[in-house]
């Protein structure tokens, strides 16, 4: 009897799976039909794209290199400042959002909602709204950068805090530690390695994002890439894109070295 | 009473140094950036006025908005499907433990890390410059970041497969295609689905942003509404975007549970 029940359950599960797969396929097919693009065309167009791409974007023109240096520095500075502020803000909000740390349920739910709202709006949408409200300026760019990493950092921090919280904090509480002592001696030391990991990761994201931010007029490399493409100066744009690639790869490399050195 | 210090004095000094360096780095970077606090603060004072304008809702254009949303979503799905197929092929050639040749694996990884270093929006700008506007360039433009992300993740999943599995398969005389079909796919299908699920949200967010650089979709409508000071419309599109992203996040979780 028991055996029969589990067979029926497995059957149900596989039926659910089949229906889901069928629905997903319908969505997939529908998108191609709606776009009036057949799935083969984009793949066949790729060689052509590369050909065309090579023709208009190459060779890169590095003539303006001296004026790009300021842009590179600016991109780096934006990423540093943005990472710092979002790391601190996310730490506070992470504490407020972690179930095992913040006992006040309504506050927790409110914070969770705010964070999910911020995270679910694409960064460029935030940036253009901010530009609309506050005008163009690097302060707006900075806020958009903070918003870009704030959502995912807070969520990751809160999850990590929940993971460490239970066993360790119980033991500390039993010794009669005050909330402040709990934070300093219980949460922060255990949380430190993952905090470093996530924060460094967000720095990498910020380097990429600060180059995008230029596109809403906040500064950095992005604004020049966009301007050059708009002005059909593709070879200058390519030079900047190459610089951006090197910058991102170098950051990744250095961050990995630094991470190994600290942890 | 003698208190036992919780932190060793030597560590205390080291921690202090790290804190000072960290704070200095922040201070110097912030001052070099030359943030326009003054203008910002004065704008902040007036922002209440602007935000009050936003508290209206104009849903008269709901038809256009929804059909542009459909366009954005279709581009996201189409580029995800094509990107996934391409990534799977490239990942099988690029994972070091099953790659036909070592240099192929090194080459593919280098190309993928370059593709990943270029932000999605720059890819879209470049493809639009080469192909012109339209859904086709949207789909192709978004395929690049998708392939960059998925290939890297797929490769790392494939490389986690224990050597024994592959050795055993090889010793039975399986050819490369059999190896992938019987040895690799069953082992990685679950983690592949997870990567795809993460990418769904990313692709939708990107396809919405796409419009903001003029490639069509709901982003274009938002830019147009902002340019025309149509507050009610801006609010409505903003809410539609939030609703879409939120629904997709929920759907992805449910689908993952069902499969």
Give your account of this protein's structure:
- The complex is a heterodimer of chains A (263) and B (259).
- With 263 residues, chain A is an all-alpha fold.
- Chain A folds into two domains: 9-47; 70-262, MetI-like fold.
- Chain A has nine helices and no strands.
- In chain A, helix 5 (123-134) packs across helix 6 and helix 7 runs antiparallel to helix 9.
- The longest helix of chain A is centred in the middle third of the chain and has 37 residues, at 138-174.
- The termini of chain A are far apart.
- Chain B has a single domain (62-258), classed as MetI-like (MetI-like fold).
- Chain B contains ten helices and no strands.
- Chain B has helices at 9-33, 37-53, 62-94, 102-117, 120-131, 135-159, 163-171, 176-210, 218-227, 231-258.
- In chain B, helix 7 (163-171) crosses helix 8.
- The mean pLDDT of chain B is 82.
- The chains are: A mainly alpha (263), B mainly alpha (259).
Quick structural gist:
The complex is a heterodimer of chains A (263) and B (259). Chain A has helices at 2-35, 40-57, 65-97, 105-120, 123-134, 138-174, 179-213, 221-230, 234-262.
As a percent range, the share of helical residues of chain B equals over 70%
Pattern of helices and strands of chain A: HHHHHHHHH
CATH class of chain B: Mainly Alpha
CATH architecture of chain B: Orthogonal Bundle
What's the total count of β strands of chain B?
A: 0
Major beta sheet summary of chain B: none
Look at the helices and sheets of chain B and give the structural class: mainly alpha
What is the percent of helical residues of chain A? over 70%
Helix/strand order of chain B, N-terminal first: HHHHHHHHHH
CATH topology of the largest domain in chain A: MetI-like fold
CATH-assigned homologous superfamily of chain B: MetI-like
Shape of chain A: globular
Identify the biggest protein-protein contact and residues per side: A-B, 69 and 66 residues
Low-confidence stretches of chain A: none
């Amino acid at each position: 009897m028991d055996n029969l029940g589990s067979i029926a359950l497995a059957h149900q599960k596989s039926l659910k799976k089949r229906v889901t797969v069928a629905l997903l396929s319908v969505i997939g097919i529908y998108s191609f039909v709606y776009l009036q693009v057949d799935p083969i065309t984009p793949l066949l167009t790729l060689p052509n794209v590369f050909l065309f791409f090579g023709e208009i974007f190459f060779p890169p023109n590095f003539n303006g290199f001296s004026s790009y240096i300021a842009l590179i520095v600016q991109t780096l500075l934006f990423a540093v400042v943005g990472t710092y502020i979002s790391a601190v803000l996310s730490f506070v909000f992470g504490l407020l959002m972690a179930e095992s740390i913040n006992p006040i349920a309504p506050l927790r739910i409110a914070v969770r909602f705010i964070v999910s709202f911020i995270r679910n709006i694409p960064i460029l949408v935030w940036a253009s709204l901010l530009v609309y409200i506050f005008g163009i300026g690097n302060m707006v760019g900075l806020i958009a950068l903070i918003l870009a990493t704030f959502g995912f950092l807070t969520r990751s921090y809160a999850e990590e805090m929940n993971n460490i919280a239970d066993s360790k904090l119980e033991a500390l509480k039993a010794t009669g530690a005050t909330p402040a002592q709990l934070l300093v001696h219980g949460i922060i030391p255990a949380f430190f390695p993952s905090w470093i990991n996530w924060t460094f990761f967000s720095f990498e994201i910020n380097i990429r994002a600060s180059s995008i931010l230029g596109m809403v007029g906040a500064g950095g490399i992005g604004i020049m890439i966009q301007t050059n493409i708009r002005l059909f100066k593709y070879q200058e744009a390519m030079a900047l894109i190459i610089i951006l690639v090197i910058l991102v790869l170098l950051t990744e490399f250095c961050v990995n070295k630094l991470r190994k050195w600290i942890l | 009473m003698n208190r036992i210090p919780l932190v060793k004095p030597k560590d205390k000094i080291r921690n202090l140094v790290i804190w000072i360096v960290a704070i200095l780095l922040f201070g110097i970077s912030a001052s070099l950036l030359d943030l326009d606090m003054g203008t910002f603060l004065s704008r902040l004072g007036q922002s209440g006025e602007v935000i009050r304008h936003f508290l209206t809702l104009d849903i008269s254009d709901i038809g256009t908005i929804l059909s542009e949303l459909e366009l954005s979503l279709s581009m996201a799905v189409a580029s995800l499907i094509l990107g996934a197929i391409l990534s799977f092929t490239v990942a099988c050639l690029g994972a070091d433990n099953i790659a036909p040749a070592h240099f192929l694996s090194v080459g593919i990884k280098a190309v993928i890390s370059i593709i990943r270093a270029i932000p999605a929006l720059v890819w879209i700008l470049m493809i639009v410059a080469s192909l012109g506007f339209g859904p086709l360039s949207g789909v192709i433009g978004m395929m690049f970041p998708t392939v960059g992300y998925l290939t890297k993740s797929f490769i790392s999943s494939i490389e986690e497969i224990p050597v024994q599995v592959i050795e055993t398969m090889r010793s039975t005389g399986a050819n490369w295609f059999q190896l992938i079909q019987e040895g690799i796919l069953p082992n990685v299908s679950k983690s592949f689905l997870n990567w795809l699920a993460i990418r769904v949200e990313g692709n939708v967010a990107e396809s919405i942003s796409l419009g903001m650089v003029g490639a069509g979709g709901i982003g274009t409508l938002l830019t147009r509404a902002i340019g025309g000071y149509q507050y009610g419309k801006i609010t409505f599109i903003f809410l539609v975007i939030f609703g879409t992203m939120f629904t997709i996040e929920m759907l992805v979780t449910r689908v993952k549970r069902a499969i």
